[in-house]
Amino acid sequence: MELTKEEEALLNGGRGEAAAKLMRLLVVLGELYEADRMLKVSSVHVSGVSYQNLGDAGLSLLEDLASKGAKVRRNVRVTLNPAGMDLEGWRLMGVSAGFAERQLRVYEAFKQMGLREGLTCTPYEAGNLPAFGEHVAWAESSALAYANSVLGARTNRESGITALASAITGRTPNYGLHLEENRRPTLLVKVEAEVKSEVELGALGYLTGLSYGEAIPYYQGVRVKSLEGFKALSSAAASSGAIALYHVEGQTPEAERFKENLRGLERFKVERDDLKKAFEKFPLDVGFDLVFLGCPHLSLEKLVWVAEKIGGRRVKGKLWLCTSRAVYQRALELGLTEAFKRAGALLLRDTCLVVAPLRELDFKKVLTDSFKAAHYLSGSLEASLASTSQCVRAALEGRVSLDQA
Amino acid sequence: MIRLKGRVIVPGRVEGEALVSAQPLSFYGGVNPETGVVVERGHQLEGLNLTGKILVFPYGKGSTVGSYVLYAMAKRGTAPKAILNRRVEPVVAAGCILGGIPLLDRFNLDPVETLKTGFKVRLSEDGRVEAWP
């Protein structure tokens, strides 16, 4: 791989030992994937923030890097993925003081390195919004699928540590989805059912990921009507599979380019029965311990929508809503946080149930509108899926009405 | 004496005893970083200690958090002395680079086939490996 003088200097310790190690890591990965050179990145999103995932091993690595003087490269917009708790309101969640102490140390180490913004899986709604064609290094499967597909930015599936390396060095190796020729669809998904809601888009993504783990799907016959819909599709496809990029005919920015080149692609037909089957993996039941919305993190528009659905009533079941700090702040200004409080719902920032210390929280049955959340939660508890309005109604009534559509 | 030559990812001049697995290995959830013992159920190396060994396996698998586990092992002194892979993947590469664990791959002869557990192994910094029973 060819390196510039500046990159050579970085590799040889010109900006400290930590930066040299992380640059070495990127060079090795570049060589593994036969990259010809490094790309400058202007935007990075770092995962591996929850102590629940990092453990002491990750915490000690982050503290070491911070103490060795690793610092985010100037001119790189950097955001963090959610932590295992609301950094301020963690007591309301029932997280233990021991967990909180370690989680706060993780955040402290990131802050020392210059990473303080975000704490969200929707960085694109919190000030980190790459432009079309921009080379970026994003971790967090749902966010990077959104960045590639909906924004037309270019990123590989980074891990926490490779994204951190890009934040510190400002570089990523030029391979994979950074290259034009690797962004072509590899699968034609013909949707022959009317996909009506966001959760059904989740089902569509979930099925695609499950059946074709690493494909680049081109969707035909579906119209995504909201950004929330794209969030549901991206996150579901990236959780059941490793889908980092998809195209939707007539909608996503790169779809047009490939419209005439679909012949010969493998085909995947999705009918109403198939969508139903996706839901059957997470069947509805009358009871639940918690209704969880906000995977991926809720947008301000969606929070307003939920508040209107609640309409001043009090919830009978437990309802958690998760969003980013950025949206939380705006919700506060609009008086929404107060409204949720009055309704008995808990609005959390910085975190999400999927990366929280579930063992400490003692939920056995969770109802959600997110295929991604259901997929990951079902490893440790019972997860059911319903539409967002069904979820809100269930929270209000304290039970799920199985007859409603 | 068996002689191999591989690609150097993290250089090192070390000598030790080979521990060979024909199966891929996940460090996250598969190895206890406190003890260096393989805990993955049903794995060929289950119950064996990796500490101080020249660890030979085809490639890494599993969560990217595995990098942090390898790093933690290096810090605690429970890491292998070196790792020889058929073909390295990003999780093991990141862990070895950060933890300073010598790492080689892409050999002229497959180390998984050629080396046996218990062999003495000597690595040079240029990627040459000598081994003998």
Compressed to H and E, one letter per element, the order of chain B equals EEEEEEHEHEHEE
C-alpha termini separation of chain A: 56 Å
Main pleated sheet of chain A: 5 strands, parallel
| Intertermini distance of chain B | 8 Å
Structural class of chain A: alpha/beta
Overall geometry of chain A comes to: globular
Looking at CATH, which topology of the largest domain in chain A would you report? Aconitase, domain 3
**CATH class wording of chain B:** Alpha Beta
CATH superfamily of the largest domain in chain A: Aconitase, domain 3
CATH topology of chain B: Glucose Oxidase, domain 1
Radius of gyration of chain B: 13 Å
Number of strands of chain A: 14
- Return the CATH architecture of the largest domain in chain A: 2-Layer Sandwich
What would CATH call the homologous superfamily of chain B? Phosphohistidine domain
SS-based class of chain B: alpha/beta
Strand arrangement across the biggest beta sheet of chain B = 1-10-9-3-6-7-8-2
Determine the oligomeric state from the structure: heterodimer
**Which percent bin holds the helix content of chain B?**
10-25%
Major beta sheet, strand line-up of chain A: 12-11-10-13-14
